[in-house]
């Protein structure tokens, strides 16, 4: 009972047009059975101020993470969470959020670890929906409880751990943080000092391609040809590459992961969610400072 | 825990947050965010007088005044798309604006952890409020010193 894809010409150019929908498409399908729209934000209260009518809230910090271990929920936890939100295994789940869809892309990536079959990102996110004057609602939707199966999380294909990144040195790595974080001038993202690290710089060999290069001013993704020019042209990535992307906690790199894996169709792209808050605080891992890889 | 007692106005806020179930606690924070007073003209027209608080994940600016009788006045600005930050600012405004300098300085640094928001908001997000309080206290100390 999957919903039809968004046939917008811009999306048709992408490798996986089934992974992305426009605000217009969402507005036209809001009442369709089989669809759940979920908002994932950096600001935990933004959803409460008004959201896409009928959308549920899905919080990366408080819901998708394990409350104790630095890890995501397990299969049982994910099944419980999805069931509570009224999301079934065959639901078309459309994610959107604030901050250029960082957290929506992060949530989509976590849902991908559980292999949810039909995931899509709303191009342009919350900002575009609101800029277009589309309706928002403060009503919390009452969706009937679903019966989501317990599916084991599979970290092998889409996720990279620190030891794997150490073994990956010499192969393509993309650092999506700001230039100051990459060079080591800043120990944290501009304006985010609480997510700092003891050491600054980047993983040796990592090329700097800040996440925002993939975004247009209206928070939508750039068309495929422009993305190819950046990632294939400038960064020299090819579909044969085994690529690892990282940032500081994995949210900005989820945005780039989505671009590389779904919009450009590179089959082997992993997100290193430990990212700089792990690497820059680890004992005796190699670090490069300065503007060169 | 430091064992320090909270000013009754802060204690009242802590009690209010802890008296309601989890779900309503976020709603209460949202109500605070909606009640954050707008900047008075003298700051709205002179944003350079405001101190940025980069520890908050979204832009927040604050100004602190210490009046000749030691009364502390607080001013905040945060955009509407940052309701959590606005909520934190409004809690501090409600709890501290109008107290005297010693009372503000006596506020325990870990005050924000008493609101029962850790699991709802995440500890990372809560650090923004601790940073606001630290900056308020530093400004109070600086401004008192200037006056001598």
What would you say this structure looks like, in words?
- The complex is a heterodimer of chains A (293) and B (148).
- Chain A has 293 residues and is α/β, with parallel strands linked by helices.
- Helices cover 30% and strands 10% of the residues of chain A.
- Chain A contains eleven helices and nine strands.
- A five-stranded parallel β-sheet of chain A has the order 1-5-4-2-3. Chain A has a four-stranded parallel β-sheet with strand order 7-6-8-9, covered by helices on one side.
- In chain A, helix 5 crosses helix 10.
- Chain A is globular and about 50 Å long.
- Chain B has 148 residues and is mainly α.
- Helices cover 52% and strands 9% of the residues of chain B.
- A three-stranded antiparallel β-sheet of chain B has the order 1-2-3.
- In chain B, strand 1 and strand 2 form a beta hairpin.
- In chain B, helix 1 crosses helix 4 and helix 4 crosses helix 7.
- The radius of gyration of chain B is 15 Å and the shape is globular.
- The chains are: A alpha/beta (293), B mainly alpha (148).
- Chains A and B meet through loops of A and helix 2, helix 4, helix 6 and helix 7 of B.
């Amino acid at each position: 009972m999957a919903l039809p894809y968004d046939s917008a010409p811009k999306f048709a150019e992408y490798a996986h047009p089934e992974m992305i929908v426009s605000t217009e498409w969402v507005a036209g399908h809001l009442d369709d059975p089989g669809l759940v729209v979920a908002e994932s934000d950096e600001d935990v209260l933004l959803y409460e101020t008004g959201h896409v009518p009928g959308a549920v809230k899905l919080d990366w910090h408080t819901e998708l993470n394990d409350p104790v271990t630095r890890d995501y929920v397990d299969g049982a936890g994910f099944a419980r969470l999805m069931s509570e939100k009224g999301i079934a295994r065959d639901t078309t789940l459309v994610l959107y959020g604030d901050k250029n869809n960082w957290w929506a892309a992060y949530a989509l990536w976590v849902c991908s670890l559980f292999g949810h079959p039909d995931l899509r990102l709303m191009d342009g996110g919350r900002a575009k929906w609101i800029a277009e004057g589309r309706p928002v609602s403060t009503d919390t939707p009452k969706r009937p409880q679903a019966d989501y199966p317990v599916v084991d999380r599979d970290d092998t294909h889409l996720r990279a751990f620190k030891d794997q990144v150490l073994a990956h040195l010499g192969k393509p790595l993309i650092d999506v943080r700001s230039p100051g974080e990459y060079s080591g001038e800043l120990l944290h993202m501009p304006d985010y000092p609480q997510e700092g690290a003891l050491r600054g710089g980047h993983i040796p060999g990592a090329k700097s391609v800040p996440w925002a290069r993939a975004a247009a001013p209206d928070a939508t993704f750039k068309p495929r040809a422009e993305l190819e020019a950046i990632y294939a042209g400038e960064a020299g990535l090819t579909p044969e590459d085994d690529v690892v992307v990282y940032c500081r906690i994995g949210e900005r790199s989820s945005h780039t992961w989505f671009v590389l894996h779904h919009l450009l169709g590179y089959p082997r792209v992993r997100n290193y969610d430990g990212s700089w808050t792990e690497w820059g605080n680890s004992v005796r891992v190699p670090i490069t400072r300065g503007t060169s890889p | 825990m430091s064992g320090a007692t909270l000013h009754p106005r802060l204690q009242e806020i802590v009690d209010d947050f802890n008296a309601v179930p989890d779900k309503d606690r976020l709603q209460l924070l949202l109500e605070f965010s909606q009640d954050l007073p707008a900047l008075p003209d003298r700051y709205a027209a002179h944003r350079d007088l405001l101190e940025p608080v980069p520890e908050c994940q979204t832009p927040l600016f604050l100004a602190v005044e210490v009046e000749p009788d030691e009364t502390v006045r607080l001013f905040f600005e945060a955009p509407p798309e940052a309701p959590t930050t606005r909520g934190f600012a409004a809690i501090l405004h409600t709890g501290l604006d109008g107290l005297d300098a010693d009372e503000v300085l006596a506020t325990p640094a870990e005050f924000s952890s008493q609101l029962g928001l850790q699991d709802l908001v995440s500890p990372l997000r809560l650090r923004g409020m601790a940073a606001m309080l630290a900056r308020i206290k530093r400004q109070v100390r600086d401004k008192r010193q200037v006056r001598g």
